[in-house]
Automatic annotation (TrEMBL):
SUPFAM superfamilies: AhpD-like. One of its GO terms (molecular function) is peroxiredoxin activity. Residues 37-114 form the Carboxymuconolactone decarboxylase-like domain. InterPro entries: AhpD-like (IPR029032), CMD-like (IPR003779). This is Carboxymuconolactone decarboxylase-like domain-containing protein.
């Protein structure tokens, strides 16, 4: 780990509440970002609002996040799973297919999102009009922008977790009220 962690007793009440609801990995992340309490107190509502208030649905959002994780190879991100995504139809077969090129098990909308996310994470310069045309075949402009924002959020925070050395088998940012589910 390349940072110290703020003791929960020294956190603001707001961050302490986030820390208390977090998984072990989430507690490491909260402890690290608590060094910047004003920013951290704005971070969690933003992150959770975008991730859990998504218009593209929990399964597609989770596939997007896991596609980004394929490009960074972040073990924290690769292992985390959301129960809501499974409830919405995502399967481990979908997750396994992210590392290949066969999109046959995905809906056409999911395939467009997965391909966009993989390019976003691996070679954003390769994204062009065809990628946006594929997204717009299934999503309106608000949803297309949401997809881009989700890609940016997951890529950036996944890299921050790795740079700080906060490797734990669960997603480091807990949803409001409950930790993310992990599958190893």
């Amino acid at each position: 780990m390349y940072t110290t962690l703020v003791d929960p007793q020294d956190m603001t009440p707001e961050l302490r509440a986030v820390w208390e609801s977090a998984s072990d990995g989430g507690r490491l992340f909260v402890g690290a970002v608590a060094h910047a309490p004003e920013h951290a107190s704005r971070l969690f509502p933003y992150y959770n609002g975008l991730r859990y208030g998504t218009r593209i649905g929990p399964a597609t959002c989770e596939l997007l996040r896991l596609a980004i994780a394929q490009t960074t190879q972040c073990p924290v991100c690769l292992r985390g799973r959301r129960d809501e995504a499974f409830d919405a139809g995502m399967t481990e077969e979908h997750v396994a297919a992210l590392s290949g090129t066969d999109r046959g098990g995905f809906t056409p909308a999911q395939a467009a999102v997965v391909d966009f996310a993989l390019r976003f994470g691996a070679d954003h310069f390769a994204i062009g009009e065809a990628d946006f045309t594929a997204l717009r075949a299934h999503y309106d402009e608000e949803e297309v922008m949401e997809i881009g924002m989700l890609c940016a959020q997951f890529l950036g925070f996944g890299r921050l977790v790795m740079v700080l050395g906060l490797d734990d088998p669960v997603c480091p940012l807990p949803p409001p009220g409950s930790p993310a589910r992990a599958e190893v």
